[in-house]
Amino acid sequence: MRLKTLLSLLIISLFAQLLQAERAGEIINTKIEFYSVKLDLKYHPSILEKNKHCTSTICLKRFYKKLENNNYQVLLESLVNHKEQMELNDWFFYNLVRKSVETIFENKSDMFRTSFTWFLMTKAGYDTRLYTSKSKYTFLYIRTEDKVFEAPFVKIKNRPYVNLTSMYYGIKTKGILFEIPKFQPGQLNEKSFSFKIEKFPELPPVSENRNYQFEMDGKKISLDVEVDIVGNDLLKGFPITMPINYIKVPIANTTLHSLKSALAPHLADKSPSEKVRTLVNFTRKSFPYKNDQIRFQKDKPLTANQLMIADSSDFEDRCALFYNLLKETTNLNFIVIQYIHDDIITIGVELPEVTGKPFVYEGIEYTICDPTMPTNSSKLGLYPINLDKDIEILEVVRNSSPKQG
Q1: Residues 38-81: pLDDT tens digits?
Q2: Which residue ranges form the domains of the chain, and what is each CATH number?
Q3: Residue 405: its pLDDT value, please?
Q4: By the 8 A CB rule, do 397 and 326 touch?
Q5: What pTM was computed for the model?
Q6: How many whole angstroms separate alpha carbon 126 and alpha carbon 299?
Q7: How many angstroms separate the CA atoms of 388 and 254, rounded?
Q8: Could you tell me the pLDDT band of residue 129, with boundaries at 50, 70 and 90?
Q9: Under 8 Å between Cβ of 94 and 121
Q10: Which of 59-73, 82-96, 139-153, 170-184 has the lowest mean pLDDT?
Q11: DSSP assignment letter at 187
Q12: Strand ranges (DSSP E) for 200-355?
């Protein structure tokens, strides 16, 4: 709540300054391409003034202070407005900031643009650090509490900071020697950076039609679905984080509406168990299976929307789709379970009648409804691997009161 209040005050303050500058006729309007939309971007010409840039502490301090004394607020207000309107998470906001800086300063060096991005992210309230290397490169680090894999991290006072610049460009920083300038204004900020995606940004859809087929009880079912592919572009270059973060990413609105409409006739008038069995059949049989190590030579979870246009899928990917379908087409309670040492994730659903050996958690009995195993089966209640494996509960979803035993 405190963060929302501070953000609201920041927007009000910046908006007032923007109105004052617009009245003076000093605002420059430009366009920026942000995935499927062209955004209007406003900035004050004072930020274009020549500003000497190098990687020494004194030089970076002068660079920062000159920007601070210019009217950077117009640009920051424009960016924050787009963040709010499109409901961008921190990663997408960083991409918006970076693309905007690249548009405005297209003739400047990457070092300059990284430093300008560092300035804006710092002024947006994030806890940042700027590292340099060989007096030629700058790297923006930002504090995060999220686990991010295959990304350069440093720890400062036991707080983790991740290298956004290397992720954005795909730079391998192993073996690079960094220098740490003493001037670090971002250390005064407390805002942590999050990679979690609560929803996809509000962007115009770009769709393509897909057909999915599966068999259930000897009957072939065919679904025609309009799939929004913008979400896939958004996630290109997205860092690998914990699987549950991908599983919980909602399906894009266009895809979700079309998929629910296609499934509706096959779910109508069915009992909860039969609805779940239909959804399980869909996830098990409509998407070819291929292990991540074979597909990508590493673990790389997909969101539900990515799975809808992928040529193959793994356990986590199907769980992401099944998770979303349970949330969107039923009001059932369910649980997401990970077998820690096997990298296998499965889902248990609280049904009126338990099928197979129940999975019991906090006194509630769940039927295991694995969206992958048994392969090409229609059965519920079968575990993907042995019961005595180490497990972790990733998520518990409560949509209704627990069934009374």
Answers
A1: 999 999 999 999 988 889 999 999 999 999 999 999 999 999 99
A2: 2-188 (no CATH), 207-397 (3.10.620)
A3: 39
A4: yes
A5: 0.86
A6: 29
A7: 41
A8: very high
A9: yes
A10: 170-184
A11: G
A12: 207-216, 219-228, 240-241, 334-339, 344-349
Structure tokens given for 258: 């079309």
Residue found by looking up tokens 């049989």 in the block? 285
Cα–Cα distance for residue pair 249/384, rounded to 1 Å: 23
Q: Encoding tokens for residue 403?
A: 């069934």
Cα→Cα distances 106→35, 103, 280, Å: 18, 5, 49
The closest alpha carbon to 191, from 148, 159, 154, 143, belongs to 143
pLDDT in tens, 355-393: 999 999 999 999 999 999 888 889 999 998 776 678 899
C-alpha pair distances (Å), 117 with each of 68, 72, 165, 211: 13, 12, 10, 42
Whole-angstrom distance, CA of residue 341 vs CA of residue 366? 22
Q: How far apart are CA 161 and CA 173, in angstroms?
A: 14
Average the pLDDT over 195-221 and give the result: 91
For residue 307 the two structure tokens come to 């799975």
Closest CA to 241 of 188, 300, 154: 300
Q: Which two tokens stand for residue 208?
A: 């393509």
Q: Cβ neighbours of residue 65 under 8 Å, at least 6 residues apart?
A: none
* DSSP-assigned states of every residue in 32-92: EEETTEEEEEEE-GGGGS-----SSHHHHHHHHHHHHHTTTHHHHHHHHHHHHHHT--HHH
Q: How far apart are CA 145 and CA 113, in angstroms?
A: 26
Q: What is the mean pLDDT of residues 33-41?
A: 94
**Distance (Å, whole) CA 234 – CA 145:** 22
| Cα-trace Rg, the chain | 24
Residue environment code for 132-161, b if the CB has 16+ CB neighbours within 10 A, otherwise e: beeeebbbbbbbbebebeebbeeeeeeebb
CA dist 52 and 330 (Å) reads 59
Gap between the Cα atoms of 348 and 128, Å rounded: 41
How does 163-190 read in b/e, with b if 16+ C-beta sit within 10 Å? bbbbbbeeeeeeeeeeeebebbbbeebe
Q: Which of 384, 282, 383 is nearest to 325 (CA)?
A: 282
Nearest 5°: the CA angle 16, 22, 28 is: 120
